[in-house]
Amino acid sequence: MRLRSDALHNRRLVLEAARDLFATRGLDVPIAAIARRAGVGVATLYRRFPTRDSLVTEVFADQFAACVAVVDDALADPDPWRGFRTVIEKVCAMHVADRGFTAAFLTAFPDAIDHERERERAERGFVQLVRRAKDAGRLRDDFDPADLALLLMANCGITVGSAEEAAAASRRFVAYLLDSFRADRTAPAEPLPAPVPLELRHVGSGR
Question: What is the spatial distance between Cα 64 and Cα 178, in angstroms, rounded to a whole number?
């Protein structure tokens, strides 16, 4: 059934408001706050999105698809280590740019069949990337695919003043981790991205 122009407009407003609030406040932001930001009533929001999960999966549909594409591209890379490294770098960059996406990526949505199917495909692909990198002697043997969730949770803890500083801090953090994941420790280490001028007062302050 085709939506009327005003209904489409309201739907777009809701998605934009939810995207902004999920990014800054996480997935637990009240539905009423999203409706208020969008300038619509709560009943209008629920007509378009009957559950929070349906709203979350719609808001992050493009990012979910992008994650799957990153893994697919990495599997097509003939260099196993480069493919593995690229996934870590790109996914962490996506997550530090949007706090809500981190939570959405790590949350199960049993009713969102398409989303769950795509995520399972991405997870299987990452397992293949890990196996290929180990077989090539480039990834340490005790790395477990489940460590990706650990890495993402740690990366999500990077909270500094600006989006640019957070992205730069994430790149340096990920570079440190990737170096620790390498099995060929005798090979020259790749140079780290430039440091970010952070101070200890930033720890736990959220800015």
Answer: 23
